Amino acid sequence: MANPNSPFGLSTWGGNGPAAPTMAFANPSWLAVYNAAAMYYGDPVKMGSDGYVVPWTAGTSVAQLVGILRGCTYLSTGQGRIISNNYWPGSDVASGNYVQLLVDPIMRCANSMFLVQATSTVFTQADIGANCDVSMGTGSTLTGISGASLDRSTIGTTATLPFTVMGLYGQNLLGGTTGVDHSDPAASYNWVIVSSNSGAVAGI
Asked: Whole-angstrom Cα distance, residue 162 to residue 135?
């Protein structure tokens, strides 16, 4: 069956839990400057040259990959109060103020994996183990959800590509089932399981 085109960025799929004694994921405080570009829930984000987090751009080395955006808190000039949101709209903060970002760290634990929709070119079983980049697309200001998807045209063995294909949602995780949305590995927009290509083996 046809897979619908409804990208959502990267959704946390699983991975090993954190080690004792903390028993919790570390969540370092990352900041964006007041006039940073919009970032949406599920967007991969990177560290800019000024030490602030900015949206991911295709072609950036995995070494700059910070994690996946999960929300933000900031002092809204429009509402006159501190608000929490699932995405950063890229404005609504006065000059000199900052945006506190909630980021799912790409190295939060060993073997972290993420679910992501492919672009129109389908991923197949032969792509497992290869590296690739994402197409950022356009996030939704209505839902705050990312428009990022996995870009099959970038696939290769290049070590600096940010993500490694770990499996297909249909063939590898549903026992070959292809009767539900996004599970058909022969159709565009199928879902793919990826991990960071950072080689991380421990949480931050």
From this structure: 12
For residues 166 and 164, give the distance between their C-alpha atoms in angstroms, rounded to a whole number: 6
d(CA 101, CA 195) in angstroms, rounded, equals: 22
Regarding pTM above 0.90, the answer is no
> pLDDT digits over 124-181, tens only?
889 999 999 999 999 999 999 999 999 999 999 999 999 999 998 876 554 555 555 6
